[in-house]
Amino acid sequence: MMITKKAIPRRTVLRGLGVTIALPLLDSMVPAATALAQTAAAPKQRFGFVYVPHGSIMREWTPAQEGADFEFSPILKPLEPFRKHLTVLSNLSNYGEAGHSVSSAMWLSGTFPAKGSLLKLGTTVDQIIAQKVGRDSTFPSMEFATEDHSSHLGSCAGDFLCSYMSTISWASATQPLPMEINPRVVFERMFGGDRATPEERRARLEKNTSILDAVTQSARELSAQLGARDRTRITDYMDNVREIERRIVTAEQQRDETGVEAPPTPVGIPENWEEHVTLMFDLMHLAYQSNLTRVTSFMMARELSTLSYPQIGVADGHHPVSHNNNIPEQVAKKIKVDVYHLDLFAQFLDKLQATPDGDGNLLDHSLFLYGSGMTNGNQHDHENLPTLLIGGGAGKHQGNRHIKMAKSTALSNLMISIMDKAGINTDKFGQSSGRIDV
To answer: What are the two backbone dihedrals, phi and then psi, of residue 341, each rounded to the nearest 5 degrees?
Structure first.
């Protein structure tokens, strides 16, 4: 039998005036009679690091049983559908004085930050991994957040520069990476193309036309070469891009229509925090799907966050709620916030799991670290940090486990194990004293 199938390159994109749209992995990108793993189209490992501030109520976070088939604790309930991909790790710690700046600074670095006017930390694990696995993607890494510390009074804590709380990603000991909070900026960066001028992008926005309009002809020409399943996959992908763009425009219009005098805010930042977080997760999903990046970091909220959550019945700010002083009513509010954050994260995981990727789905081929650099909001300590590892890791991670480590085991030990899964062999990182079998 003669096999005539002709594969299209994995890096195939749709192009238009000032627009470049990367594509998801398609069947047509795999040569006929060739094993997927032997091609450039083989699924790639993705890594993500998701930070939440102010610790948690650990007695409601930690499963009672160790090992496999543990019963989900109240706070972790939103992740129960992802049991096979989930590992809960207890008794991981960072050593150093308590505090908000220290919490976010040390989470991915394992390094105590310098005090005073000196800015010094250490290269974070996400950037080390990006140097290894991100070289063949458009963006070696992407950094997301929802809050800009400069818009709040008293945003710096202790004798530390504000940079330690404004990011969790450091390219070097003295180079903190900015976390992008504007969905419009992220969207234009991902799909605006390297040939678009600011004037071209501004004109398109003023005309209220979709970024996809520029690639209609390119998409039509490509579809003529594809099978039915690939055509459906591209249609679904483009519909998703268009829907995210629509939501960004809607958020901009809602902000413009409030009529409230406010400091200048970059266009594209939703008034609604839940919509903001969801947009950022959806952009991460698209970036993974189209291989624009393989490494992301996301601060869902920052240390000292004053965000309130009236939509779930918590009108007090998150930071004051974290100082609950073990008052039952305040503890209950903090639990609600923690469950809410995990609910939103679970929605993101569900989208990854529903997205085909080679011989599996995006969640199968991803590995996420979710947690906080603080344990107890009353004490600001870093002992027994809330820590989760989630995803299939492209076959390198098996979940359905609660691993209880010896007390005060360095969180840096887990970072070494995550780097192992990225093909980075090292015996020392931050405060590490070994590695963890995950």
So the answer is: -60, -45
